[in-house]
């Protein structure tokens, strides 16, 4: 069960050509040390409980490269490495760069600003989100051996040393790019670098023992959903809290497919704690009610057009919830997220534009 962790993101693209101020959107940064021996399970022990291959007839090459369930068994190590980094989870983080730039009101279509944004997208998506997904799969290997035994780690398609190497390479690349952006922006204080380090630590405790925040459905999923853009004004604090609750709902979507393994290993995800029927309503309620509350807040703040646009984007999300998610959250989770998530992230952009100055 690979989770996506959003900490905080905001971009400040200054009108001054030498300044690129950014507060960042942090995401999934799970941090692992090589001294994890006390919590590691021997690879052979995991493999003994899991078949070596997924059924050939149900495996998809597209699912494999995107890193989602139903993937084809693959032997090519580079394809396996990409699968572990879960490219399907990168777009929301890349989109966060766009939202942050919009919220700042300081982005200009110059070559330098575009280049800085591209570097930030690479840092946010392939590097730090890829790092997060890989380390999360490492700590979820026993759960995956039950829920998705064909995944690369429980099936033995990639070795422990290769996984740990990937974790460190992606982490160091992401943190290195964060430092580069600080230098490029001429920061006196390396805020981007320290946010990257902090995000890495928080996502490490999300996935790893002894804290392993994901053991508790409320704490873990709220950690996944924490989001921030802009400077710390009253408006930003309120909108951050609301969208963080919506993020909690998004995190719950991914828990349904892991119920069997979570229950067996004692993780109190929302579906395990409340049952699937109740959990799916908690999920859609967290997503819809908080977005409606954001629209109401924008209306009260004198942004009627932004509020109406946001309401218009909530409607198709509710439609797809009724069509897919509420019918069968396990069978249709991928279809639901592919259909509904674009409207949610567009809503984030609308809200970011409403807060721009």
UniProtKB/TrEMBL annotation:
GO cellular component labels: membrane
Indicate whether DNA damage appears among the record's keywords: no
Q: Which Pfam families match?
A: UbiA
The protein's name is: Chlorophyll synthase
Instruction: Give the record's GO biological process terms.
Output: chlorophyll biosynthetic process
Looking up InterPro entries in the UniProt record yields:
Chl_synth, ChlG, Prenyltransferase_related, UbiA_prenyltransferase, UbiA_sf
Span-the-membrane segments of this chain are 167-185, 191-209, 221-246, 305-326
The record's subcellular locations are: Membrane
- The species this protein belongs to is Penstemon smallii
This protein's UniProt keywords: Chlorophyll biosynthesis, Membrane, Transmembrane, Transmembrane helix
């Amino acid at each position: 069960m690979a989770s996506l962790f959003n900490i905080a993101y905001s971009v400040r693209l200054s009108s001054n050509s030498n300044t690129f101020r950014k507060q960042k959107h942090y995401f999934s940064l799970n941090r692992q040390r090589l001294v994890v021996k006390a919590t590691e399970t021997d690879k052979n022990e995991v493999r003994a409980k899991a078949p070596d291959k997924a059924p050939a007839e149900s495996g998809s090459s597209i699912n494999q490269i995107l890193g989602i369930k139903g993937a084809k068994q693959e032997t090519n190590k580079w394809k396996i490495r990409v699968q572990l980094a879960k490219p399907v989870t990168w777009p929301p983080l890349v989109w966060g760069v766009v939202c942050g730039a919009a919220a700042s009101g300081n982005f200009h279509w110059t070559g330098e600003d575009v280049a800085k944004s591209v570097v930030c997208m690479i840092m946010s998506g392939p590097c730090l989100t890829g790092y997060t997904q890989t380390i999360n799969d490492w700590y979820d290997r026993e759960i995956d051996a039950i829920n998705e035994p064909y995944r690369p780690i429980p099936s033995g398609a990639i070795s422990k040393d290769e996984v740990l190497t990937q974790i460190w390479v992606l982490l160091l690349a992401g943190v290195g790019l964060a430092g580069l952006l600080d230098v490029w922006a001429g920061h006196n204080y390396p805020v981007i670098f320290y946010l990257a380090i902090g995000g890495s630590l928080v996502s490490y405790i999300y996935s790893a023992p002894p804290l392993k925040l994901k053991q508790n459905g409320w704490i873990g999923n709220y950690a996944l959903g924490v989001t921030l853009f802009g400077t710390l004004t009253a408006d930003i604090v309120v909108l951050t809290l609301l969208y963080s609750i919506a993020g909690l709902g998004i995190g719950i979507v991914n828990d349904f497919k892991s119920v069997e393994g979570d229950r067996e290993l004692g993780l109190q995800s929302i579906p395990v704690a409340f049952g699937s029927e109740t959990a799916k309503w908690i999920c859609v309620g967290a997503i819809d009610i908080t977005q409606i509350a954001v629209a109401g807040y924008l209306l009260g703040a004198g942004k009627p057009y932004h509020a109406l646009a946001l309401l218009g984007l909530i409607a198709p999300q509710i439609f797809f919830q009724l069509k897919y998610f509420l019918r069968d959250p396990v069978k249709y989770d991928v279809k639901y997220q592919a259909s509904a998530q674009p409207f949610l992230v567009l809503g984030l952009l609308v809200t970011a534009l409403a807060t721009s100055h």
